[in-house]
Description:
- The structure holds two protein chains of two kinds.
- Helix content of chain A is 28%, strand content 22%.
- Chain A is an alpha+beta fold.
- Chain A has three domains: 39-140 and 210-258 and 264-297, Aldehyde oxidase/xanthine dehydrogenase, a/b hammerhead (Aldehyde Oxidoreductase, domain 3, Alpha-Beta Complex); 169-202 and 299-474 and 640-818, Aldehyde oxidase/xanthine dehydrogenase, molybdopterin binding domain (Aldehyde Oxidoreductase, domain 4, 2-Layer Sandwich), CATH 3.30.365; 491-636, 2-Layer Sandwich (Aldehyde Oxidoreductase, domain 4), CATH 3.30.365.10.
- By secondary structure, chain B is an alpha+beta fold.
- Helix content of chain B is 33%, strand content 26%.
- A five-stranded antiparallel beta sheet of chain B has the order 4-5-10-6-7. In chain B, strands 11-12-13-14 form a four-stranded antiparallel beta sheet. A three-stranded parallel beta sheet of chain B has the order 1-3-2, covered by helices on one side.
- In chain B, helix 10 (226-232) packs antiparallel against helix 11 and helix 11 (239-246) packs antiparallel against helix 12 (263-283).
- Chain B is globular.
- Classes of the chains: A alpha+beta, B alpha+beta.
- The interface between A and B is medium-sized, with 34 and 25 residues.
Amino acid sequence: MTVVDDRPATEVGSPRRRKEDARLIVGRTRWTDNLTLPGMLHLAMVRSPYAHARITSVDADAARQAPNVVAVLTGEDVKDIQGGLPCAWPITPDQKAPTHPSIAVDRVAFAGEIVAVVIARSPGEARDAAELVDVEYDELPAALELKAAAADQTLAHPDLGTNTSAVWTFDSGAAGTGGDVEAAISAARDGGIVIEREYRQQRLIPAFMEPRSFVCDPTGEQLTIWSSTQVPHFVRIFTAAVLGIPESKIRVIAPDVGGGFGGKLQFTPEEVITVLAARHTGKPCKYTETRSESLVSAHHGRDQWQKLTLAATADGHVTGLKVELLADMGAYLGLVTPGVPILGAFMFNAIYTFPAYHFTCRNVFTNKTWTDAYRGAGRPEATYAIERLMDELAVEVGVDPLEIRERNWIRHEQFPFTSVCGLEYDSGNYEAATARAKELFGYDDLRAEQARRRASNDPVQLGIGVSTFTEMCGLAPSRVLGSLSYAAGGWEAASVRMLPTGKVEVVTGTSPHGQGHETAWSQIVADRLGVPFEDVEVLHGDTQVAHKGLDTYGSRSLVVGAEAVIRAADKVIEKARVVAAHLLEASVEDIDFANGSFTVRGTDSAQAMAEVVWAAFSAHNLPDGFEPNLDSEATFDPVSFSFPHGTHLCAMEVDTETGQTTMRKYVAVDDIGTIVNPLIVHGQVHGGIVQGVAQALWEEAVYDDAGTLVSGSLVDYTIPSSADTISLTVDQTTSPSTTNTLGTKGVGEAGAIASTPAVVNAIVDAVRHLGVNDIRMPCTPERVWTAIRGASGSGGPSTAAAASHLGAGAPNHDPDSGAATQGGAQ
Amino acid sequence: MIPATFEYVAPTSVDEALAALAESGDDAKVIAGGQSLLPVLKMRLNAPSVVIDLGRVDGLRGISVDGSDLVIGAMTTHHEIANSPLVREHAGVLADAVSQVADAQVRHRGTIGGSLAHADPAGDYGAPILALGASMVITGSGGSRTVAADDYFTDLFETAVGEGELLTSVRIPSHGGAGSAYEKFVRVAQQWAIVAVAATVRVADGHIAEAAIGLTNMGSTPLRARGVEEALRGRPVTADAVREAASRAAEGTNPPSDLNGSAEYRRHLATVLTARAVLKAAGG
């Protein structure tokens, strides 16, 4: 008999199908909403229909008398016990913030804010009774449009006296990491090029697949909370801090969680209310939001105005970049709301060797749903701005957009490279990724076709968009977070447990919600310990099991979390080596470990890991004083970020008669360092690209003049489906990171960061010859059509390249003027 | 997403359904696939006390030919219509339109009768039904009557179906041999039409002998572009001639302005899409 061994030589690098998928796809698993506990009660929220109003009365008598209603809690009922929701990232010492109640007490600050909760024996009865709660409001003027809010025309929180929460600045001249931007701009105005643009990052909604759901069981010694969250450890800490419950009396479980995209990186009013309800009634309580509630009350993302000034020499070498942001906080500061634009502050210089840089951001309150992290968090905004600007610079200089990037990017031999922000880029090769992308794309052929279509005045024009992005992954070195006034650290913890039967349990502090950690961590540990992939079980998301961790966001899990796993596994090996030496009657220094086997160097005597594990378990024959335990823990705090990068090329067809845009070709060549599982990487890149394309083409959270979310259902908030996408060409080049053992860099956000500017650059490129140099996102057919129809200039080099373009009435200056702003209220 | 409490009635014949309707009167809603009604109920935009489900009335389901008419039962699903050789042969534009309704799940649940009775002007049935000159068979306690498509849509979400009546089938005169096209304009695949145009065209000797144009989402009801139909008659099948005629497509329309497009933009789209639909129909 022949035994065919079809195992890969190493698990790392093998495109294993995800071990999670069977249960996730068929739903035979423990989603929070699937949980039913004895005697469980159900919650329904009463939410404000007004963006800004004083609550004059809440009459809940009828609701309290409705069938099977156990209790109704209003803001007045809980005001002394609900505490205030936390913001973990005060970006300046004088940052202003309103108190953030879970249930509004006397004033609501956005439409969707909770004013009461009904607790009943069934979800339907709770909903029925919620409609009987009679709330009277005295409407107040609402701060809605971001620029008007920044000018304090109407105050979102009158008591604060201003809508500005904080102003944060980075100046490379002052920091000593680069030159003075104003000097660079002045110099460029005389014979050089100054590009001035204003771009809008529209408001987006994370729109994770699984609506948020929370269960709280107060009946044991410990309060147990199930939450569809990305951050169970944060939820535990903040439940303790906000409600004054000892942390040791709280257990938080994030069971299988259906997506987050940053939208579940939050500690929410709904979590607090579920706990309050459970404690009030003494019974397990569940709250599962509806999709409509999710869209209006789970935090939103992006929402910035970006004012940009790029200075360059006449031949297109950038000499300085100035960034002035307005960032919409919405009504409150969530967990990391103020820090989101700051995460982008270090990325506007991107892959380039800019010598001078100045960044300032004004964080502004409005009476809208609060914003916070959304896939990429700050970095997509930065990447969009600079990649759009580099295309504009190429037009001014009159060279191909790839050529202008090459003139400015960091060459591969310059790594490690310290950026104008003072960050050390670990590794990269922009030349290699770009060359590969051009080849896969058929760049020259598509450029030739573009020229033919222009020459023949084809109604369907072709445009090519470039995006050469980088991002900072692996959040985060704790010292860096401390320097940015973030409340927590950025380390990650893991433990590896050796079971007597040779199986392995890996406990990770990361909290996957679709990423495939169970598969990837198993591959890594299988290689490390020389055990079969199937013998590794990955445990996560329960603070009683994974007691220590900082959870999953910011492309950190593999780079930081898996490094902790590796270090814990290595500690197991070191302990086992001592036992193996004892069993083999050799000295520890002479013991080698490879492929799951300990050998005495220069001999053929060996002990398998499984034998060593059993020996440690039985403890019959161990070295004197050896603690019979191979299990090990490790905590890894990165010393620096990792910097994946990539070149994305997009060809878009634009129907000039209707404005309809159609993707023709998309090539992504990413350098994300060492790849653990190519199948998972492809999934992340595909999903990320489509999510970024959605910002470019489809998605926008639109409010009306009263502050009501108009795009409040998935009919109006148009997320794409597979039917809206084409087959993407995805490949990789590899420059291993120098910041961790495997050389990994992080891939969770790459596609979403890179694709948005690639698409918009392609659309603008398709119609630039018609006189268009910008189209506001999302580039709806109407906006594209209107831009073409309203175009007046040539779209080519401006007649006075160095003159100011940001005067009133300039093409993209005023939020309420110009062709690109049509198609929906802001 | 939990509807208010309602009584559920599931008749197995048209007579039973009519009886249930008569009994519950104004408070009843008929469910015929539920692809529009269920979201309305779940979002509590409506709270009928009785829901009468036609899903078990087998007699309302099926596609057949009766003389020179194609007859489609009200409870026939979008999927069945889109994939029916009979529909393809006699009313191709209907198959084209219906194959573009929402997504596969919706097409397997939603029905022609449900869609036409709901009468959303953005729905994909109205324009082809108008272009095909179909008739609606409406049944009440006194028997059945027939209403021409042109008289069927009376206002936003309102039709000729009266109180106590049901839309039971749709009769479509065979258009075998005519060319047709449905040009639907959307931003994402599964959404309602921003604008769509249904065209049926008969060409003789290189000229348009007869054309019928239906417009989706250009007013409070599906509309016919009669100005274009007149302008096309007798014109040669050339792009210029068709575009000139199609420039009248927005005449008499009153399209909505919403997140997907302004009224002005929809009027423009109607002319472009009408020209494209007619050229496609005349060429095929």
